Every structure is written in C-alpha cells, then in structure tokens.
C-alpha cells in the first residue's frame, strides 16, 4: 500500500507544481497591475510607488521565486478588497463549500447506492423503471434551471423556504437539494450498471442457489465488486462541488468558495483568486489520494 500511495502522491504533487507555474504566469498576462488596482486618473508617481511596493519592478523570475517562497509559507498576500490575508478569506469560504459538499455527497452516495443496487437486483421491474426514469431526468437537468424552479415553487409560491443566507437549517435545504439531483442521477446509473454486472457473476448465482438471502447478496457480495467504477464518479462529483458550485452558490447567495471566486474576479482581487485556486487544487489532490486508497483497499491487484 505504501509504495502505491507514494507513487500516486508524487504524480499529484507534480501536477500541483505545474498548476503553480501556470497560475503565476497566466496571472501576469492580465496586463499592467497598476491598471487593475489603481484608479484610472492615478499619476505616474503613484504607479511607480505601487510597482515598487509590490515588487512588480523586479525581473519575472525573481517575482516567481518570491511567489513560490510565499506559497511554501502559506502566504498568499493581502486581499485588496477586505484588507486581510487572502488565505483567511479563502479558508472561510472553503469551509462553507466543504460543509455543503460533505452534506450533499453523503446524502447522494447513500441514496444512489441503495436505490441503484435494489434496481439492479430487480432489472426490468417497476422499481427499476421508476429509478431509471428519475435518474435520467436528474442527470440531464441543469443546475440553474432546477434552482430557479425550486425558488419559484418553494420560496415564492409556497413560502416554505428562504432563497438565500445560511442562518438556519432551512437555508441549506434548497442549495443541498439542487446540488443533490444531478450527482444522484449520474451515480445511480453507474451503480445500477455496475451492480447488474456484479450480480450476474457465477459466485452470486452460487450464493443464491445455496439460499443466501437477498440483502447479503446485494450489499455484501455484490456491492464490494460493484463499487470500483462508482468511487470514480463519486470522487468526480465531490470534486466538482469542492471546486466551487458556482451557479448554485451565486443563485442562493451561499458564501462558498465558488461565489467568492466570482466576486473576486469581478473586483479584481487577484490575491484571493490565486489563493482560492491553490486551495481548491490542494483539496482535489487530497481527494484523489483518498480515492486511490479506496481503490487499493477494495481491489488489492491495483496496488501492483
């Protein structure tokens, strides 16, 4: 397990280094920083002072070296708009997004695995057809459309739920509900397909012939071999939410990292944008490592 995870960690670390280089040089292609941060009528003295103060007069390689050194010390600079460390601003937003992702993906994973497994055990039956229909609808519906429909029904017409904020558990229902639908549809389809293959294996037929009950056949014998492709999809969907559920967070005014990135780009607060990109990338890096660990635990052949 150790060498396997070590190789995966090195591969992910190389990708992370590549991202650091890409983020730095792309940010320098956005133009003269004095045009971004200073007023249009700023005189030449103000522009020279700003460049000197922020080190923009140094050669690009020196700026890159300083940028990497600061990253190693978790120093992403100051948020121009909020006048505090950018990493503090980003971690505050990331905490909200992480909470949203954990709640949503926990509900999605449990529901999709249970319903998908039962549908696979009764292929062609009424339950299977209903589950397949709703999974296809859920996987096809765009988030922004679901969010608008949910607001019109539950907030505007019924007055049951608030449309924005995070003060109570009621504020979480619409964002979590909207984020739930699409991953649920996708993962349920993968679970159903994978479990149909797993449940048709000879050892499952042998277990049935020996009189083993349906529940152990599905959730013990079948699920262990049917989970590998499911883990990939779960990881992808969780990464998508962690990377910033931009549409949902913006529509519902949820103070997560997706809404923070949009606001920071519009306000040209690039220290926050860069910090948000790096924190998101690190989260994806850790998640991929956890997925690799799950792979190795479920199928020891993958370690080699």
Keywords:
304 residues, mainly alpha, 77% helix
Main sheet record: none
Helix content: over 70%
| CA distance, first residue to last residue | 9 Å
Shape: flat
**Average pLDDT score:** 82
Low-confidence stretches: none
The SSE string, one letter per element, is HHHHHHHHHHHHHH
Would you tell me the structural class of the helices and strands? Answer: mainly alpha
**Proportion of strand residues:** under 5%
Number of helices: 14
Total beta-strand segments? 0
Rg of Cα set: 24 Å
Structure, described:
It contains 14 helices and no strands. The chain is mainly α. Helix 5 crosses helix 8 and helix 8 runs antiparallel to helix 11. The longest helix has 36 residues. The model has no long low-confidence stretch (mean pLDDT 82).
């Amino acid at each position: 397990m150790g060498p396997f995870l070590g190789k995966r960690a090195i591969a992910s670390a190389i990708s992370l280094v590549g991202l650091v280089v890409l983020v730095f040089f792309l940010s320098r292609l956005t133009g003269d920083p004095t045009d971004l941060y200073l007023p249009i009528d700023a005189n030449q003295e103000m522009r020279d002072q700003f460049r000197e103060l922020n080190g923009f007069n140094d050669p690009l390689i020196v700026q890159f070296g300083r940028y990497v050194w600061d990253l190693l010390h978790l120093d992403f600079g100051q948020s121009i708009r909020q006048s505090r460390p950018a990493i503090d601003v980003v971690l505050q937003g990331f905490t909200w997004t992480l909470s949203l992702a954990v709640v949503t993906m926990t509900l999605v994973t449990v529901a999709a695995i249970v319903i998908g497994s039962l549908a696979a055990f009764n292929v062609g039956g009424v339950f299977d057809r209903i589950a397949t229909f709703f999974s296809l609808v859920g996987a096809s519906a765009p988030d922004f459309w679901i969010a608008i429909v949910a607001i019109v029904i539950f907030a505007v017409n019924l007055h049951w739920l608030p449309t924005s904020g995070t003060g109570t558990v009621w504020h979480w229902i619409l964002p979590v509900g909207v984020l739930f639908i699409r991953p649920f549809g996708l993962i349920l389809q993968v679970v159903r397909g994978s479990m149909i293959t797993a449940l048709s294996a000879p050892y499952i037929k042998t277990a049935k012939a020996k009189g083993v009950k349906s529940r152990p056949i599905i959730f013990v014998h079948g699920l262990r071999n049917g989970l590998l492709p499911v883990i990939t999809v779960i990881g992808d969907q969780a990464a998508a939410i962690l990377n910033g559920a931009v549409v949902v967070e913006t529509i519902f005014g949820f103070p997560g990292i997706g809404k923070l990135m949009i606001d920071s780009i519009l306000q040209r607060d690039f220290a926050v944008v860069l910090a948000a990109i790096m924190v998101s990338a690190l989260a994806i890096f850790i998640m991929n490592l956890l997925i690799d660990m799950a792979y190795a635990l479920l199928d020891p052949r993958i370690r080699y």
